[in-house]
Amino acid sequence: MSSEAAAQVAPSGRDVFGHPRQLWMLFMTEFWERFSFYGMRWALTLYIVAQFFGGNQSGQAYASRTYGAFLALVYATSIFGGYAADRLIGYQRSILLGALITAAGLFMIVVPNQDIFLAGLAVVITGNGLFKPNISTIVGQLYAPGDQRRDSGFTIFYMGINAGAFVAPLITGWLASALTNTPMQQNYKVVFIATGIGMLISFCWFWFGRRQLGEIGRPPQGAGVGQMLMVLIGAAICAPIIYMLLSRVGADTVQVGLSAIFILLIALMIAEGLRAGSVQRDKVLAMIALFVFNIFFWCFFEQAGSSFNFLAENIVNRHFGGWEFPVGWFQSINPIAIVVLAPLLTIVWGALNRAKAEPSIPRKFGLGLIFNGLSFTVLMFALTRLVENGHIPLWPLALTYVIQTVGELCLSPIGLSMVTKLAPVKSVGLAMGGWFLSISIGNNLSGIVAAAMSGKTGLTTASALQGYTYGFALLLGAGVVLFLIAPFITRLMHGVK
After folding, report:
1. What is the 3-state secondary structure (H, E, C) of 280-317?
2. CA dihedral 170, 174, 177, 178 (to 10 degrees)
3. Are residues 233 and 257 in the same domain?
4. Which of 52, 182, 185, 240 is deepest in the core (most CB within 10 A)?
């Protein structure tokens, strides 16, 4: 169902704070889904090392590779989830089914068995692919074409994402220590149970709230039991394949597969651009160039759940008297920084626009890469000058997260908008798949890079310094290159801003 069609059948009703009341139901549905995702995400690598390697740091490399592959496949399966909702069962049913499957996977990873743990991750990935892309689509369908409230509606929805991401590590960390009577020592099983319950709350919230949506997100005409059965069979086939990728194949082969799909998508987009004429061909080439630079960004931004976690656990001094700052709480810095900094950056862009000095889309991408790179200079300084008894202070890692967030705000929010503006009209879905795949490839590479930093014996101050210096140089170099070629890419965009 197109957004135009959906808007025509949107249920009438009073607005709440100037927006359709359905937005607030979707806000809370997404809040609890993100609570579940970020509540378990911060604990994954730490749990793998603690549970399956007896706390031996030699397990860090395996944990980082598994974490990177997990994130990569979460994004990759979004492509198939969007297709299933579009063509087979509609967005509402896809969200409900995805929520139940994800909850089942979260409860599975509680079992202290490595095969069941990996199978649980595979089930979480499958469910997330059905849930994540489709709730955002419904938000867009609440607004009629040309409704000026659309952008602010997505901003409110984005706050739901970041609110869930902010409170999840704080609450799950507190629950673990409170329920197990071991202050600040995480009981990961409590963490995973809490996130599974959070996913069930998300399911219930949407189940009872979906009546407000009327025909929005309903199944396509003619869809019935057969289509639902097809999706269920597809999910049942998908989960074992993902399990095999995680358990038997590994991150390196996953990288080869993702790269091959990415190259195929690029070829298809170029072919479509050529058919649409020289102007559209140029726009596609500009978009592909930004996809490639996007990979570099996420490769190092997603150190958060891998090398940054091990740095926080073993190298950062988190003790304040008799109290220890939990490792998981570092994961709340990024979302709260987004909430604080996003309005400020919006003001800056507005002021530069009025002064006719606002950076182009390629240069905003370049700024994102540069800020991401500069964030590592803080850790490089700490690992060189501030090491005491094998530890560095807490503040450098916290500041690194904040500076990275500035880079994220320069790059990530405009990415999806850029795709819709530059892609051929008949291939927007294909191009969106390319965008998600570029993030997916970057996430998988992040795990490979973190694993190389940990090596066979675990992350050390020396290996961390070497890895973060490499990240700084690569990101800064990529950002400078993008700044230099930005005028050329801008010309290819033919006036798109």
Report:
1. HHHHHHHHHHHHHHHHHHHHHHHHHHCHHHHHHHHCEC
2. 180
3. no
4. 52
Whether 223 contacts 89, CB under 8 Å: yes
- Counting the structural domains of the chain, the total is 2
Q: Does residue 173 share a domain with residue 27?
A: yes
Collapsed DSSP state (helix, strand, coil) of residue 388: strand
Structure tokens at 89: 């069962």
Task: Give yes or no: residues 174 and 314 share one domain.
Answer: no
pLDDT in tens, 417-470: 788 788 887 776 678 778 888 999 999 999 999 999 999 999 999 999 999 999
pTM for the structure as a whole = 0.88
24-50 confidence digits (pLDDT tens): 888 899 899 999 999 999 899 999 999
User: What CATH number does residue 214 fall under?
Assistant: 1.20.1250.20
Can you give 442-492 as a three-state secondary structure string? HHHHHHHHHHHHHCCCCCCHHHHHHHHHHHHHHHHHHHHHHHHHHHHHHHH
* Token duo for residue 204: 């219930």
Task: Give the DSSP letter string of 347-382.
Answer: HHHHHHHHTT-PPPHHHHHHHHHHHHHHHHHHHHHH
Please identify, among 223, 249, 275, the residue that sits at the C-terminal boundary of a domain: 249
Tokens standing for 199? 């996913």
Which residues form the domain of 354? 251-497
404/396 Cα distance (integer angstroms): 12
Point out the domain boundary residue: 249, 284, 308: 249
Element (H, E) at 324: strand 323-324
CB atoms within 10 A of CB 54: 9
Specify whether 290 is located in the same domain as 157. Answer: no
